[in-house]
Amino acid sequence: MPSATLPTFSADEIDDLLYLARTNAHQDLAAGVEAIARVQRAPPADILSATVDPDSGNSLLHMAAANGCLDVLSFLIPSFSSSSSPGPTLLNPNLPNKSGNTPLHWAALNGHLAAVQHLMGAGADPAMRNLAGHDAVYEAERSGKDAVARWLLIEGKGLERGMQRSAGDAEEEVEEEEEEEDEEEEEDEEEQAKEGATDQDGGKKDGDGVKGTRRTGSRT
What we know:
Order of helices and strands: HHHHHHHHHH
Radius of gyration: 32 Å
Largest sheet: none
Distance between the termini: 114 Å
Number of strands: 0
Helix content: 55-70%
Number of helices: 10
Strand content: under 5%
Shape: elongated
């Protein structure tokens, strides 16, 4: 029977595992996970899934990807498929942290091409955007990691879908701007029509006055 909830353990244990992930100490990480799993009486994959920084939402995959730790990535990715927890776990390569960044965002940002390729092979989606609206290619280009950006643009499956989504967003923005411009033009036309009507009314009054003056003059 799959576990309904992930196990919980101490902040120190979480910090230790995250540290091992970002230093590529995959053997020590595996040993630490096994030790906690025995105490928790939980599958090791569930321990991996539960290891998340509570403040940032960074998982073990985030830490390994950010530092290009291929040994840890190779250890973590198979564990994702064997987790007993239902639904997506925190070893899902597409699950973001609290800033919306996936492990792929971080690997691309720091120029770790091999880590990017490893994550993509595990199903990472290069079209995903963080909360700032940036995908992995943007992060690579912004940080000057041209080799990663080029590889993602050439080999990155899913980028076409992301660009189509971006194009769709751009089209929506253009349509909204055109609608706003049309509304402004209509308001200007209505305002001009009102001003024209006011001028005509004023002309009629002036004309009546002139006619009155002429009538008065004729009487004199």
